[in-house]
Amino acid sequence: MQLQQLRYFAAVADTRHFTRAAERLHVAQPSLSQQIRALERELGAELFHRARGHIALTDAGEALLPLARQILADTETARREVQEVAQLRRGRVRLGAPPSLCASLVPDVLRRFHDEFPGIELIIDEGGSQDLVRTLAAGELDLALIITPLPGQAPALAATELLREELVVASSPASPPPVKARRIRVEDLRDRPMAMFRRGYDLREFTTAACRAAGFEPLFTVEGGEMDAVLGFVRAGLGIAVLPAMVAARSGLRVTPFAGTAMRRTIAVAHRKDVAPPRAARELRRVLLAYLRSADADDLPGLPAGTRLLP
Questions:
Q1: Residue 81 pLDDT more than 80?
Q2: Rounded Cα distance, 53 and 44, in Å
Q3: Nearest-angstrom CA–CA distance, 168 and 77
Q4: Which residues contact 52 (CB under 8 A, 6 or more apart)?
Q5: Cα 36 from Cα 27, distance rounded (Å)
Q6: pLDDT at 250
Q7: Is residue 145's pLDDT more than 60?
Q8: C-alpha dihedral over 211, 215, 219, 223, to 10 degrees?
């Protein structure tokens, strides 16, 4: 079994078309077909149902596909590791992070990393923590900033908790404050019009769960937005929103902290346990930790009061 054969197999599985797979890989279609046939002979099973205009995986193909992707991802990691040993003059880092961190913490960290390693390409994948964990486990990311704990069964990851951040209520400065008190309770969100993120956002799931735990369903006046859209909705007076303190501090919106400690989230940096991150990724992790530990949280840019580093 050759890596090239697995690469061809994965491309056909992705495109469900031999010609399009060959075009993607810049090889001749007959050559690709021959390699797939050779792989099938070696494995002793057909990997595709071939019908005119329709290609589908057989049971054997379904079983091979995740293993093939894992092998190819591990091979790519090994290749990059060898290339990057020359003082990290070239290479890449694939970092996943929730949109709220991409709008607050990540830019400052990436600026420091780029200043130190200008030849390293930075690839950022925004998404919810559950999606990022799956992408990380599949070998498509080197590191991910995630919100813990994760619901359900998470893959085998090594995660280091970095900081604990308060969530706050953001409202338009042109509208009356959501409460007269200095702090707001979760119960005060009952029947309050809210601008809500699209499904899959950690903040949506966290806020909804907190409201249900307090005995009510949140009232959405507008929902389905990304981070910038929700900030715009709040600014326009369409509703309040629950935001991380790091985002709210930069938004220009009125910020009302929650009473108590229930509305907090913990941020961790994670990588796969079974494969060491490439050197460039390890350096990015070092820069991230150094940035967070270079001063008390209240003194760091982008980390407002209510954000606390974890030991």
A1: no
A2: 25
A3: 39
A4: none
A5: 13
A6: 86
A7: yes
A8: 40
Nearest CA among 69, 200, 70, 74 for reference residue 131? 200
* Percent of the residues in the chain that have a pLDDT greater than 70, as a whole number: 92
Measured in whole angstroms, the distance separating CA 154 from the mean position of its chain's CA atoms is 14
Task: Tell me what the mean pLDDT of segment 62-89 comes to.
Answer: 84
The model's pTM: 0.68
CA-CA distance, 246 to 257, in Å (whole number)?
Answer: 12
Q: For residue 262, which phi and psi values (nearest 5 degrees)?
A: -70, -35
Contact present, 307 and 163 (Cβ < 8 Å): yes
Under 8 Å between Cβ of 223 and 200: no
What tokens were used for 95?
């970092």
CA pair distance 15, 31, nearest whole angstrom: 17
The pLDDT, as a whole number, for residue 306 is 59
For 46, the token pair is 């057909």
